[in-house]
Design goal:
single chain, alpha+beta, Conserved hypothetical protein from pyrococcus furiosus pfu- 392566-001, domain 2, 6-stranded antiparallel sheet, globular
């Protein structure tokens, strides 16, 4: 199944008189950065990762010249010593300490102050690339062409995987985690806090015996992509290009491998959060008419919500009975639970019929409201909010919102089951938080270089 390998990563190099704090250098993933955020990150440091992952051309624009600017920036950072490639291969243990989205709490570069912080643990490595049809690395969502082309041009110019795919594997006994215990007791090699109040910690595992054991433990595992489907497909496309280069060395070439963060599906800190749906611009929208249609398939209970915490707890309780969601519109709040006999009405593959998001999209958006899948993907009548409180505020309709549908999170085992069945979920079915920090480890690719074997 999965074949992983250590590598000699490119990391930020702390100055001799400084702690290994890289807060000013890390950035979020490129696809969640607004223009204002990009400018702020770029102003923090000429070495901030945003100069690599979201470059501008020489005139500050978005022409294809921006990709060469990124390549030049990477070479400059290496030449000036801000970035340095490790001398020996490693598996990079990576902790993210965070609060759930919407929570608040002060943090610092060395600790996070909160009532109940969550720690998600995993490691960054190389992984042999496989097409999805080979059944080794499995997706759970569709991808769009635009982002892949942009990332393809960027990787061509930098010849480096600047960020990681986020993958899951299933290790019930957590034997892989045990291999990292010896290094987790010491201070991290790098740490930093990002603007989303997440503390990132990184250690190098260089012991060859321990690394070899981790690689062996993964050999009988499938990998499930949690986040980064576009990145993975871009890596596949680049592999085909690099195979045609004169220096390509064959099956053990670094070009045969991508860069991935792997998290055990059994990790207590692995949490999936929901993405809520906001309905707008539906001609002739009528809540009472909608409810009359939905009564055919759903038990509907109207209720006052109380606090956000009570509303979330109530929605969780309904979710124990079956696929459920909370509909807020025109000052009314209604909990809807699909009746068991309505399962067949959802249609599609069996593995998808009990997912809250599939039920919502099929029975409400498509059948009751007539919003087809093309309109859903184009967000013609839908937009998305991740914060429960913000979604409830949107239900007031001050900006033309007609209704808000609040969801329970999709469970990790549901994501894995859908992927194993070769199916895909509706758009934005999962929200894996926090995101992997850009700049935490870069993975250079030279088709003439052999992958590090252990």
């Amino acid at each position: 199944m999965a074949e992983i390998a250590p590598f000699r990563g490119i990391l930020y190099r702390p100055q001799a008189d400084q702690h290994p704090d890289v807060s000013a250098l890390l950035a979020p993933p490129y696809d969640v950065i607004s223009e204002a955020q990009r400018q702020g990150l770029a102003a923090r440091s000429p070495y901030n990762a945003v100069h690599l992952i979201l470059p501008k051309d020489d005139r500050g624009g978005d022409s294809d010249g921006k990709y060469e600017v990124a390549g030049a920036a990477l070479r400059r950072m290496l030449h000036e010593g801000a970035l340095q490639r490790d001398a020996q291969p490693a598996l990079y243990r990576y902790h993210q300490i965070f609060l759930p989205p919407g929570s608040t709490g002060p943090s610092s570069t060395s600790s996070i102050a909160a009532t109940s912080p969550i720690v998600r643990r995993g490691f960054i490595c190389r992984i042999r690339l496989h097409r999805f049809s080979e059944g080794v690395v499995l997706p759970h969502e569709r991808t769009l062409a635009g982002p892949k082309l942009d990332r393809l041009k960027l990787k061509r110019a930098t010849r480096t995987h600047l960020s990681q795919v986020f993958g899951l594997y299933d290790d019930t006994a957590r034997d892989t985690d045990a291999m990292f215990s010896s290094i987790e007791s010491r201070p991290p090699d790098l740490f930093g806090t990002t603007d989303d109040n997440v503390l990132h910690r990184l250690w190098r595992l260089t012991d060859r015996t321990a690394m070899a054991q981790v690689c062996r433990l993964l050999r009988d595992k499938r990998i499930y992509i949690a986040d980064g489907h576009h990145r993975y497909e871009t890596m596949l496309a680049l592999r085909e290009e690099w195979r045609r280069e004169p220096g390509y060395r064959g099956n053990d070439s670094a070009a045969e491998y991508g860069s991935i963060f792997l998290c055990n599906a059994r990790d207590p800190g692995l949490v999936v959060f929901p993405t809520h749906r906001v309905l707008h611009s539906v001609p002739g929208f009528d809540l009472d008419a909608l409810l009359r249609k939905l009564a055919e398939h759903f038990d509907i209970v109207e209720s006052s919500l109380g606090s956000h915490e009570i509303a979330q707890a109530t929605l969780r309780d309904y979710g124990e009975r079956g696929p459920s969601f909370l509909l807020c519109s025109a000052g009314r709040s209604l909990f809807l639970t699909r009746r068991p006999e309505a399962r067949a009405a959802v249609g599609g593959p069996d593995v998808l019929r009990d997912l809250d998001v599939t039920v919502l999209h099929a029975l409400v958006f498509e059948q009751a409201l007539g919003i087809d899948r093309a309109a859903q993907e184009a967000q013609t009548n839908l937009r998305y909010l991740k914060d429960f409180g913000q979604a409830l505020q949107a239900a007031a309709g001050r900006d033309g919102e007609q209704a808000v549908f609040l969801l329970n999170p999709t469970r990790v085992e549901q994501v894995m089951s859908v992927a194993e069945a070769g199916e895909v979920m509706p758009q934005k079915s999962t929200y894996f938080f926090p995101k992997i920090a850009s700049g935490i480890v870069l993975n250079p690719v030279d088709p003439s270089e052999a992958v590090d074997a252990v």
